[in-house]
Amino acid sequence: MEELKEIVERIEENRNLGLDKLLSKVNGRTAQIINNALIGEEVSVEEGEHLFYINDTDEISLLAIAADELRKEDVGDVITYVINRNINFTNICNTWCGFCNFMAPEGDERAYFLTMEEIAQKTIEARENGATEVCMQGGMHPDIDGRFYVELIKTVKKAVPDMHTHCFSPFEIYYGAHTLDISEEDFIEMLKDAGHNTFPGTAAEVLDEEVRKVIAPRKITTDDWIRIVKKAHRAGMRTTSTIMYGHVDKPYHWARHIGVLRDIQKETGGFTEFVPLRFIPWNTRLFKKSKGRVMAGPTDLDQLKMYGVSRLMLRGWINNIQVSWVKQGPEFAQFSLTAGANDFGGTLMEEHISRAAGANHGQYFPPEEFRRLTREIGRISAERTTTYGIVKMFDKNGED
After folding, report:
1. Which residue has the higher pLDDT, 312 or 365?
2. Domains of the chain by range and CATH?
3. What is d(CA 1, CA 89) in angstroms, rounded to the nearest whole number?
4. How confident is the model over 43-101, as pLDDT tens digits?
């Protein structure tokens, strides 16, 4: 945290200097890439990689300040959040991803599997607490098939008909279709017919086989993930997009990953947002058995650069970039909203996956706390829907 404190102080000093003077002060290739982005030119994957490797504090300041300026141009001064509830319906899983400590084999004392009655009750409780969305994901339980996913949607819609269902990663779409021996397109249509709304673009981790074969060899491949996301978009379904980084990956993987997402968005236009997710290492097999070969998550500096580089590379294509208060903590998430990001994410009410890996946050974050943190940096809060429609706007005092 000492490194972050020093960087924050330098960024704020340079923010007072102004962009033009800072560009002149930095000069060189970094300044050229950022200046080109400021005038509307696309940042290439190779240029994004260069920005991920910068370490000079003035260059980092320039990236963060320029990303914040572009954020203002792209989406204005509103910081959004959604009132939602996570429902992780089971942690029983047969995939054994090395970065996950949420899963448990059948018979393990930690294993659980929620009933449909429990799902319904959690949905009703979510609405009673103001939620407009339930986000459901779970382990790849060996005894369920695609009909179970359809039943989950029907259960939520019966309990609260207008609750938005944000459920099932591309891996779960693959799994559901495979268990029913039908095409992915047909399974997506089954979910749509049940009233399902949007998919989370998780299970992406890092979209590069060099990484995936180490951290999740039994999961779907990069090509599978891309194919399924495109099919969802072509079916009229929106998805988020994510990266889970800071383990065995390198900055060039991050730039390539963002480039892949940008290419998909150019083709389909189906992504609502980009969500960088730091690897939480402490309780995972990947980290504990690595003997120092696996990073303990991205550094604070890496995370700041991720927001800045993704803003520059994705602008005009994916303009909503979300912080993760669960994985970063509220204060770091707050500062990241001055370095390229514009969305606080959700209240969650209940979260198990990050906490199982060792995160210190994740159970619930009250909307009034989102508004307080937004007010402290001089921005405007708005409660949003899953697809970024505005539910309620608040003034700079946090009042509606």
Report:
1. 312
2. 2-74 (no CATH), 78-393 (3.20.20.70)
3. 35
4. 999 999 999 999 999 999 999 999 999 999 999 999 999 999 999 999 888 866 666 67
Instruction: Give the max Cα distance, the chain.
Output: 63
The strand pairing partners of 382, in sequence order, are 80, 393
Torsion of CA 298, 302, 308, 310, to 10 degrees: -40
Which among 4, 25, 99 is positioned nearest to 305, based on CA atoms? 4
Cβ proximity of 190 and 157 under 8 Å: no
**Single-letter residue type at 212:** R
Bridge partners (DSSP) of residue 166 are 135, 198
Query: Which amino acid would we find at residue 338?
Result: T
For the chain, give the secondary structure using H, E and C: CHHHHHHHHHHHHHHHHCHHHHHHHHCHHHHHHHHHHHCCCCCCHHHHHHHHHCCCHHHHHHHHHHHHHHHHHHHCCEEEEECEEEEECECECCCCCCCCCCCECCCCCCCCECCHHHHHHHHHHHHHCCCCEEEEECCCCCCCCHHHHHHHHHHHHHHCCCCEEEECCHHHHHHHHHHHCCCHHHHHHHHHHCCCCEECCCCCCCCCHHHHHHHCCCCCCHHHHHHHHHHHHHCCCEEEEEEEECCCCCHHHHHHHHHHHHHHHHHHCCEEEEEEEECCCCCCHHHHCCCCCCCCCCCHHHHHHHHHHHHHHHCCCCCCEECCHHHHCHHHHHHHCCCCCCEEEECCCCCCHHHHHCCCCCCCCCHHHHHHHHHHCCCEEEEECCCCCEEEECCCCCCC
Question: pTM (2 decimals)?
Answer: 0.93
How does pLDDT run across 196-228, given as a tens digit for each residue? 999 999 999 999 999 999 988 889 999 999 999
- Integer angstrom CA distances of residue 356 from 85, 218, 244, 325, 365: 17, 20, 16, 16, 18
Spatial neighbors of 284 by CB under 8 A, at least 6 apart, are 98, 99, 100, 101, 357, 358
CB contact set of 363 (below 8 Å; sequence gap of 6+) = 348, 349, 350, 351, 355
**Other Cβ atoms within 10 Å of 258 Cβ, number:** 27
Phi, psi (deg, nearest 5) at residue 125: -60, -40
